[in-house]
Design goal:
heterodimer, A: mainly alpha, globular, B: two-stranded antiparallel ribbon
Amino acid sequence: MIQYLIRRILYAVPLLIGVNILTFVLFFVVNSPDDMARMHLGMKHVTVEAMTKWKHERGYDLPLFKNDQAEGIKQFTETIFYQKSVGLFLFRFGRADNGEDIGADISQRMWPSLAIAAPSLLVGLLVHISLALMLVFFRMTYLEFWGVALCVAMMSISSLFYIIGGQFVIGKLLQLTPISGYDLGWNALKFLVLPVIISVIAGIGSGVRWYRTLFLEEVEKDYVRTARAKGLSETYVLFTHVLKNAMIPILTGVVVVLPLLFIGSLITESFFSIPGLGSYTIDAINKQDFAIVRAMVFLGSALYILGLLLTDISYTLVDPRVRLN
Amino acid sequence: MIFYWTDTLFFILLLMLAASVIRTRSKEHLRRPWRKVARSKSAMVSLTVLIFYFGFAILDSIHFHPTESQAGEGSFKTEAISLLDWWANPLRQRTEKTYSAPFASYGFARETVIGEDGVSRRSYPRLLYGGAHLADPEHGKFLDILQTGFKGFRDGFFAWLVLAALLTLITSKSSNLQFVPYATEIVKGRTEIPWRAILITLLFLLLASFGLGELSLKYHVFGTDKVGEDVFFQSLKSIRTGLLIGTLTTFITLPLALALGILAGYFRGWVDDIIQYIYTTLNSIPGVLLIAASMLLMQAYMARHEDEFASLALRADFRLLFLCLILGLTSWTGLCRLLRAETLKLREMEYVQAARALGVHQSTILLRHIMPNVFHLVLISVALDFSSLVLAEAVLSYVNIGVDPTTESWGNMINSARLEMAREPVVWWSLSAAFVFMFALVLAANLFADAVRDAFDPRRAE
């Protein structure tokens, strides 16, 4: 087990290096620091001095990969690649264009993101799995047919409409919750209700359909038939036999996104003006702040790889047949 | 004629589609799953809707420089227009000053109007075009809408009759029945392909389009937006954007996924390691962020090469194409993984082993023995991805990393209408129009994709 873990963690290193090099090429080679400077200082009338100053403030005035002017090991450390990439591995993200420390911003903003994303995931799981079990319970009836039809219809609606519609009906017409905003501590609760409800409803279509296929696959297996033949009730079979065995594919989907909960959702957070990492990223995209976008890309990838690792570990916990080696 | 990049690629795609249809018709083993799709009512109804949408997209993809009379007043002669623009010229040109509700003949906001007696007062101004033919909109409007709508419905019904008769005539040739008995079979719903369901869908589509078409000559059926453009026209133009994003992406996903997936599965060893490494790396970058990063870079690139993108239309077109490419780059990994797993299984099959033992060249094994046998996976994944790509466009446009703001798209319509929900009274029509058009397309695509998956997935075969 520990050996396996070490090997998996070592395997994550080349992946992270790959992500790092890819983003570096995207942000610094395809687009030279000169272009960035010109874009930020206004397109047309930029003096060379202003550009040099802009680049120097951000440490972009070094060579990309190899510094001929320096000596020894400094040939490689005094470069943009070393300065801007190695820090990412130690989660030192550097400074944003407005001079603020990205790392501090991230550690402060990930909590609101988590406050939205974690309840959305939990409530969503609960609701979607129970609805899917219900559809399986009523299989081969009209209820199932129309339930599935409703799921397909709900899948075909853009998530934007759920958010706009939910804000309009619950927030504006019924005035049950504030339309958007965020507060500290327990006061945040009333702001969280609406986004959570909306994200659960928006996910019903695809979620219920997905869980239903998982359950249907299990329902036709021999051990389920045996359980029924022994005289167990349908509900008992569904909840203890089917649900338990369908847990493995469900886990794959859930555990892998657990670390990503910190990143939050871009769309939800910007619609509800929640000061989380999602809206942070959107703001960065709109301000064309390359440093923040690159930090977020790296962070997202690192968390995703962590999620894959967690998934493998959780297999062994749920299913004793799975041995990692 | 002018060919934008996206036009050319779209037509190449359609040609390839046509070629594969012709090829499929001649091969019995390829036809069998399709026959199963053709028997499904929901699939054929959705296909009818999809073809209808594609018709509009094709009309909107044929661009040309208008002559002076075609362009009409107030538009630049240098601006290329599409066949759809030319056809819906009245819709395109009749712009009001600002918002107006569907079927309105008065403006949405009060303005200072100078009356006949020279006294200025605040009131709702008459619209320039919407219901402008009415002398007294307060009383005559409802009746006029009914009359116009009825005229449209009548024309639509006749068009449907002609089409339905033609379709019946053509299809009765392939059955052994005469025209009349075959028509009764259709009416009773006893044909193998559910022609009755198809014809009913067609009737609704034609009634709706003729009715709306007739009405939109006199009114703004879905109202107008902030700068007074007709929302119905915008929704029609958005069809092309949505379909292009859903289809052009395959130009990237298919070659990458097919080549890399099959190579990784067939050769295994270090080839497999490298390819797995590539797609795991790409996969671990959150899709939206990768798209955002790439769009930022493209903007910088376009800013640097300003002279290459002389006109606004060219820029918008390049951006649309680039978006398709990037969406393709982020979405090929799933299919690649599937193809790799399937090839791993196939390479151990007897017929592949036999081919290898007989000394068949490796490229021939890959092309003739492996590729045709993984193609059902490709088809299923393309069909399933289409609807999510159309939905993704709206979300990306909202984050400002989607299509160009000047390109008509449902995402841009939603984005610009979003803030108006806070107005009192609410401006709801842009959102509703985008909702209706998008929902119909995505629902049809989802249903069709389900039928394709049921027919092609061997695990689901009965």
